[in-house]
Design brief:
The complex is a heterotetramer, with 2 copies of chain A (164 residues) and 2 copies of chain B (85 residues). Chain A is α+β, with helices and mostly antiparallel strands. Helix content of chain A is 32%, strand content 35%. In chain A, helix 3 packs antiparallel against helix 4. Classes of the chains: A alpha+beta (164), B alpha+beta (85). Chains in contact: A-B, A-C, C-D.
């Protein structure tokens, strides 16, 4: 008795999960969200808080957002990514809002696909696009220089204003 | 008199610090664009000048360019340079 | 009182972890191994078992290795990656040996770097290089076709035999 | 008589299935290469023919090309097409 995959395995509907969260981000949780018996590859990108900027010691970042719009824009990032890499299966993005101390994770993107090239390239594109258009801001706070906390600006945004 | 539109303006990040507020209602002449609104904002909050040319604009949670004509009831947001990720 | 990062923060020594394991792989564990206050980005690649190959339903993969050499080759993959992306901070690779059912993870690569381009590109290169030269084999087993289990062959190996 | 070298040959994956063993000791003429060893192996295990040209060789856990001269005590591995990842 032979088993034919084309008859027995229905393809899964692509799933997209986007959220802003105030708790710690969980890479393994996002990997679980994009895992699938149809996936051969899962790629994640995590953005983490570095301990220094130029000659200053960073204590933490403070993230804030235009929350309703940011959530919509995260979905647009996913839609744009899928347009370029139709072989992407599931996608999940979470971004932290609030304080992020050194080594904390502020954003996680997880992407799955049947073959690895799509997930690898799509994850790279997704973080680049997120940095260019999702209305989230961070203020960087420095040790011993409380009054010098600084609003950061992504070069991806400055290089080209986001399109509708 | 001229007709007017009323819009809700949202301030975030640096623009919230400068204006000292998150939200404000503005009455504008009908036909006013985001560019016109920007002039008024800079007039009221001088510190916003530093964002001229570098900020973006959103209307009803969608990016627009600065010649967008504002409609009554619009939610307009000044988007200082973003830094998520 | 001001705090200067250049005086107070010593750079970390790059760490490399490579292992063949018989237990389930743990993405979060590998992320933890490459996390660092000096890192702004962590990228992971996970290879997972797909449920079908062509028209056949896959039940599981059986991984075996030339274990001593494979471990050395995993370290070479990391060394080659670091040569091309000197900004890579920490790297960790684990590959499963033994049975890997559908949706199970057979390999995880985790890479950290101060800025994201290095980690993203390095992770992509590392999995490509692993597939080209690390002596690990998988046999794919199919539902209802026990006698047709098949040794797979990576195109990256066939395209060019590994160099010393 | 001619001098000989003794090498340990390791079989993996498909080559292990065909030979029915993981490990074997071979005595070869001094100066023998991996190419020469391959000929002997294919002579003994006809099924290994399918791997000719597609397998790689490792000596003492390092890849070599098939003109590598084998030395006494070498650990030689026939590496069928790999499929890790």
């Amino acid at each position: 008795k032979l088993y034919s995959a084309s008859k027995r395995l229905k393809a899964e509907e692509p799933k997209t999960h986007c959220a802003l969260v105030e708790t710690s981000l969980d890479v393994a949780g996002l990997v679980a969200k994009v895992a699938s018996p149809f996936a051969g590859a899962i790629v994640t990108f995590s953005g983490t808080t570095r301990n220094s900027f130029q000659d200053k010691i960073v204590t933490h970042l403070e993230y804030s957002a235009y929350e309703s719009m940011a959530t919509k824009e995260l979905h647009k990032v996913c839609a744009q990514t899928r347009e370029r890499w139709p072989d992407v299966l599931h996608m999940a993005i979470e971004h932290k809002i609030g304080d992020s101390p050194v080594q904390d994770t502020s954003v996680v993107i997880a992407v799955s696909s049947a073959h690895r090239a799509a997930a690898l390239e799509a994850c790279h594109f997704a973080i680049d696009t997120l940095k260019a258009r999702v209305p989230i801001w961070k203020k960087e706070a420095y040790l011993g220089r409380r009054n010098e906390a600084q609003w950061k600006a992504n070069s991806e945004f400055l290089a080209q204003k986001p399109l509708p | 008199g001229k007709r007017t539109v009323t819009v809700k303006v949202l301030y975030f990040a640096r623009s919230r610090e400068v204006s000292g507020r998150a939200l404000e209602t503005w009455r504008l002449e009908e036909g006013a664009t985001t560019k016109d609104l920007e002039e008024k904002l800079v007039h009221k909050y001088e510190g916003l000048k530093e964002l001229t040319g570098v900020c973006a604009w959103a209307v009803n949670e969608e990016y627009v360019d600065d010649s967008q004509v504002l409609a009554d009831g619009d939610e307009v947001a000044i988007i200082p340079p973003i830094s998520g990720g």
